[in-house]
Amino acid sequence: MTGAAVGLRRFLTERPPQPERCELCAVVVPEGHRHMVDAEKRALVCVCAACAVLMEKPGAGRFRAVPVRYLTDPDHRLDARAWEALRIPVGVAFFFRNSALGRLVALYPSPAGATESELEPAAFEEVLGGSRLAALLQPDVEALLLRRDGDAFECHLVPIDICYELVGRMRMLWQGFDGGAEARDALDMFFAEVRSRSSAAPWGLVAQFPAPLGGVDEPWEGM
């Protein structure tokens, strides 16, 4: 075999997937690893457990640890009127406080990735502003994840990274105009897992909950 053929073969041979590594110390990280927010680049950063603990300390600079809590507010109810007031064009969206922009941002999954939806601050305050979840929401690192499924509505406070995990899943699975059966099944499974991890939001107390869902690391499009 000629040298040219040998060189070509290495590009045709399927390569094993490369393990993910901590973006701070380069150690291999497991599935379901922690994330940080890089405040300068507006990006999610994969980190190992040791770096996550280190960066949670005061004075960690531009990196902020993504919390590991999942909360619901059983006393707060959404309905069709509230959903219309938020002007969400699809059945799933998430809201977070963008400290760089100094405002709330509303995004939803689409075939193109995370797509920003118009958001009237007054509408958000009317619908969600008085909820315990909105009061507990930490800027940049947590989001309010909402879903409408027919006449059923739900809202959870979740780590921001799982919202981008959901965006990645939907972009990979989306087919046709409405996403297709596979994407809808994945969405049902995703929210079932979020519900299983969620606890009632306490009054005046911020508690810790299980680690983020593992899966696709999605760039922060729309940030």
Walk me through the structure.
The protein is α+β, with helices and mostly antiparallel strands and 223 residues long. 31% of the residues lie in helices and 24% in strands. It has helices at 3-12, 49-55, 80-86, 121-129, 132-136, 160-173, 180-197, and strands at residues 34-38, 43-47, 63-65, 71-72, 92-98, 103-110, 113-117, 142-149, 152-159, 199-200. The strands form three sheets. A five-stranded antiparallel β-sheet has the order 7-6-5-8-9. It has a three-stranded antiparallel β-sheet with strand order 2-1-3. Strands 4-10 form a two-stranded parallel ribbon. A hairpin with a 2-residue loop joins strand 6 (103-110) and strand 7. Helix 6 (160-173) packs antiparallel against helix 7 (180-197). The protein starts with a helix and ends in a 23-residue tail after the last strand. The model is unreliable at 205-223 (pLDDT under 50).
Q: In terms of structural class, how would the helical and strand content be classed?
A: alpha+beta
Kindly report the spatial arrangement of strands forming the biggest sheet: 7-6-5-8-9
Number of strands: 10
**Largest sheet entry:** 5 strands, antiparallel
Overall pLDDT level: 80
Order of helices and strands: HEEHEEHEEEHHEEHHE
**How much β-strand is present in the residues?**
15-25%
**Terminal CA distance:** 50 Å
Number of helices: 7
